[in-house]
Amino acid sequence: MKKPIKKVLDNGMRIIVVPMPGSPTVTTVALVEAGSKYETKENNGISHFLEHMFFKGTQKRKKSIEISGELDGLGAMSNAFTWYEYTGYYAKARAKHFKKITDVISDMFLNSEFPEVEIEKERGVIIAEIDMYKDLPQVSVEELLDKLMHGDQPAGWSILGPKSNIRKISRNDFLEYRKKHYVASKTAVVVSGDVNPKEVFTEVEKKFKDISTDKGGTKPRVVEKQSKKQVAVKYKKTDQSHLVIGFRTYGVKGKNNIKLKVLADVFGGSMSSRLFQSLREELGVAYYTRSSNQAFTDTGVFSISAGVDPKRIEEVLTAISNEIKDIKTNLVTEKELNKSKEHIMGSLSMGLEASDKVAMWIANQEMMHQDLMTPEMLLKEIKKMTPNDIKKMANLVFKEEKMNLAIVGPHKNGEDLLKHLNV
C-alpha cells in the first residue's frame, strides 16, 4: 500500500487520500466521531437511527429512490455503518465516477432532511433489526459481555438502543444531534483508488465547504471497575451455548496492542491455532471458536468466543482454562510464532486488495486518532515479536480478577459455570 496523504483544512476537517495506481475502483467514505458512546441514556440508539435516515432524501435528491437509483446507475456499491466510536457513509464505483459518488455522499452527509413520514416508517425497520439480532445468540452474547464489563454507561449499552427510545426519537432530536456532532473538526473523508491526490483534495473540499464549524460534542471516558471474575447468563432455549470470555486490555494508543494482535492469532486466530485445535479438532465440541483483541480510544477487550454443545460447556470452560494456563506458563515455539506472523500479514494483504477495504483500514485508524500505519509498517513491528513477548502478554492480560464470562443458552446458574473457568 502507498503511504496515505493527509490534509487538514482550516476548519479542522481531515481529508486523506490513499493512491492505488491501477485499481479499477475508487471508494469515498465520510466519517464522523459520533457513535453509541456519544449518546445519553435517553437517546441511546440515535446514532444508528440517524445513519438510516441519511438515505431518506436530501434537498437535492428528495426521495431515497433518487439516491439509490443514482448510485445504481453508476454501478456503485454504497452503505453505512454505526459503531461505538464513529459512524461512516461510503460509496464504491469505477474510478472514473469518483466525483459523482463523492457528490452523493457529501449531499447525504450535509443535506439530509429527515422527512417525518420516513422517520415513522424507519422506526419499524430499526425495531425489526433489534429483534433480528436478539434472535442471533452469537450477536446477543457480545452485547451481554459489553453490559457485564461496562454496566450502565455508554460502553455498556447497545448500539441499536432500546425499543422504547426508538419509538420516541423525534425529527428535532435528529436535527439537534446532527448539529452537535456532524461538524468539521469531528469529520474525516477518506478516498482510496486510482485518483490524483491534488484533484481529490480540491473536490472534497468543494463538496464539503458548507459543513458546520461548531465545536462538536464529546463522549465520557469509560469507567472501569473490577476486582473479581464475573459472569452473566441469558437463558435461551438454543441447541448451542454461545459464550464469550472477555479480559480488559488497552486503548488504541497502548504500546502493547500489536503484541496482543499476535497473541490473539496464536491463541485462536486460525484453524491451526491452539483454541481451534483443542475445541474443534481434539474435543469435537465447537464449530466456531476464535480469539481477538479490540482496542477502542480509551479501553480494550481481549475476547475468546465459541459456540458449543450445552451439555459439554463445563468441559469447554475447563479446556479453555487449560489453554490459557499453558500459554502463560510455556513459551510458544519459533515455528508457531512465525506461522501466526505470516497468517496475520497474509490475511491483511488479501483483505486490502480492494479500494473499499483500504479506505476502511485507514479510516478506522484516523477516527481512532492513531498515526496512520501501512501494512508494511505493521509487518515491521510484528516481526519484532518473540516467544517471550507472547508469554509476557499472556500473563499481563489473562488475570482471573479481570475475567468476564457471558453466556447465551439453556443455562440458569452462571456462578456454577464460572467455577470451571480458572486461569
Q: In a nutshell, what does this entry contain?
A:
The protein has 423 residues and is of the alpha+beta class.
Q: What is the number of helical segments per DSSP (H or I, 4+ residues)?
A: 16
Residue windows where pLDDT falls under 50 for at least 5 positions: none
Taken as a percent bin, the fraction of beta residues is 15-25%
Cα shape? globular
Task: Describe what this molecule looks like in 3D.
The protein is α+β, with helices and mostly antiparallel strands and 423 residues long. Helix content is 44%, strand content 19%. Strands 1-2-6-3-5-4 form a six-stranded mixed sheet, with helices on both faces. A five-stranded mixed sheet has the order 7-11-8-10-9, sandwiched between helices. Helix 9 (257-268) crosses helix 12, helix 9 (257-268) crosses helix 15 and helix 11 (313-329) crosses helix 15. The longest helix has 19 residues, at 116-134.
Q: What layout of secondary structure does this protein have?
A:
Blueprint: E1 5-8, E2 14-19, E3 25-32, H1 46-53, H2 64-73, E4 77-82, E5 87-94, H3 98-111, H4 116-134, H5 137-150, H6 163-168, H7 171-181, E6 187-193, H8 197-207, E7 230-235, E8 241-248, H9 257-268, H10 274-282, E9 286-295, E10 300-308, H11 313-329, H12 334-351, H13 355-367, H14 375-382, H15 387-397, E11 403-409, H16 414-418
Parallel strand pairs: 2-6, 7-11
Antiparallel strand pairs: 1-2, 3-5, 3-6, 4-5, 8-10, 8-11, 9-10
Helix pairs in contact: 9-12, 9-15, 10-11, 11-15
